Amino acid sequence: MANANTEHPLSPIMDVFYLTTLGYLTYGNAMKHAIGSLAKLKEDKKWRVIFNDHPYLIALVGHHVYAIPDQCPHQDASLFQGKIVGDTVTCPLHQAKFNLISGEIDEVSKMLYFDFGPEKITTHKVVIEGDQLFLEL
Ligand code: FES
Question: Which residue, by CA, sits nearest to atom 1 of ligand 1?
Answer without folding.
Answer: 75
